[in-house]
Design a protein that fits this description.
The protein is of the alpha+beta class. The protein has 2 domains: 339 residues, Beta-lactamase, CATH 3.40.710; 112 residues, Tetratricopeptide repeat domain (Serine Threonine Protein Phosphatase 5, Tetratricopeptide repeat). It is built from 17 helices and 15 strands. The chain has an 8-stranded antiparallel sheet, sandwiched between helices. Strands 5-4-15 form a 3-stranded mixed sheet, with helices on one face. Helix 15 packs antiparallel against helix 16. The longest helix is centred in the first third of the chain and has 16 residues.
Length: 469
Amino acid sequence: MITEKLDLIISQIVEMHESPGLAVGIVKDDKIVYAKGFGVKNIKTKEPVSTTSLFHMASVSKPFVATAIVQLVERGQVDLDAPVIKYLPYFKIDDERYKNITVQQMLSHTSGMPDVEDYEWDKPQYDDGALERYVRGLGDARLLFAPGEKYAYSNIAFEVLGDLIAKVSGQSFADYVKENILNPLEMAESTFLKQEASPELLTTPHLSALETVVSDVYPYNRAHGPSSTLHSNVLEMCNWARANLNGGEFKGKRILETASYDLLWEPRQETGQDAGAGFVGLSWFIGEYRGHKTIYHSGGDVGYRTNFVMLPNKSAAIVVLFNAMPAPIEAVTKAALNFVLGFEVGVPRPPVLVSLRKTYLEAGFEATVEQCLRLQETRLDEYDFRVEQFLLGGFVLAEMGNARAAIDMLNLGLVIHPKSDDLLAFLALGYMKSGDKELALQNAKQALELNPQNAHAAQMLELFGQQRS
C-alpha cells in the first residue's frame, strides 16, 4: 500500500512536468525495496521504460572514477598527494602551476582546472585513443586559480584522471572499470562505451522546453567517458548503492576496503552551496536532508538527468534516472527520500513554465510575461516559481539552437527573479552567442555587481578584455 502511494505520487509528478520517462530505485538494509520504470523510452515509439532500461548517467559516472583511483591507492600504485604529472608526464596546460596539481585536488574539484566548454556530442569519437588525445590536447587551457585554493567543478579534471587510471593500470579506462567494479557488482549491462550498450535496452534523450522533442544528438563521446558516459539501469545502480553502503562489499566480493570510504567521504572543501551539498569529498558530495547525512552525486547532459543519493546512517539509497532535460529530478528524489525516512510523501507544486508554454508559442513573449505576473500575483501558492526552471529552460533552448527563445526564457526568469546573478550571467552568454556584445557585457557586469564570485560572468568580461568595475 505504501509503495502504491509512491507510485501515484511519482506518476503525478511526471504528468505535471510532461516528462517522457524515468526509473526509480530504493535500497534499504542491503535490499532493493523499490524499483520501477515510468513513462516511455522514446516518445515516438512509445516503448515503456522498465527496470532494465539503460540511461546515460552523466556525472554520476564520476564516483566510479574515484573508486578506481582509490583501488589503485590501496594497491600502492597511486598516491593521492602526488602530482598528476608523476603518472601522466604528457599532461600539460598553459600555466606553470599545473605541475603542482595533485590527484586528490582533481578528485575534489580543487585543482583550479577549468570546465569543458564543448563535449562535441555531435562529433563522437569511439576509438581507444580518444581519451589520451583529449588530455594531450589541453595545452591551451589555463587554471582558474592556484591548485588547492578553492572549489570549482571541473569535468576536464576527471577526463585526466580517467587517462591516469588507464596508464597506471595498463588497460583502457572502460576496461579497467568493467573488470574491477562493474563485473564484481553484477552490473552486466552497465558500460562506459555506448557501442557496448544493448540497443534494445537504451533509452532515448529528450529535450523539454517549449515542447518535448527527441534530441538530435546523443550525449556520447569517448573523450569524455570518465566524467560522463556510464550507461546503466536502475537495478544495477542499486547494486552499486549496496556495495558502497556495505563498505565496499557486495555478495562476498569486495571492490574497496572499508577504511577507504574514510578517504572517499572525507569533506575536503566547502562548495559554497547550501547544506544539501555543503562539502565535496573525493568526487562525492556531502550534505544533509532533513537532518540526515547524505552522500551523493547528480548528473545532467543533453537529454538526461540523474541522481544518486545515499543515507549511510540509514543504510538506504535512492536512484532516479530521467531521459529528459529539464526533468523534475529534485521532486522525485525528495518523494523517494521522504518515503525512506517515513515522512509524508506529497505532490509538489507544478512548475509555472509548463503552464506558460502554450501562451509563448501562440501569443509571444509579452503575453507570456503578463500571464506569468498574473499567476504570481493571484496564484503564487499553486505554482513553483523557482529560478532553476528558467535557467534549465534557457539552457535547453540554446542546445536546441533556438537562441531567441533561450534569451526570452532567461528574461522571463528575470521578471520574477530580478536579482539572480545566474540568470544575468547566462543571459550574457546568450547575447554573446547571438552577436550582441553590448548587451552581453551589460548583463555580465550586472551579474558581477550582484555576485562578484560569479565565474561565468567573470569569464565573459575576461573574454572581451574588460576589467571589473
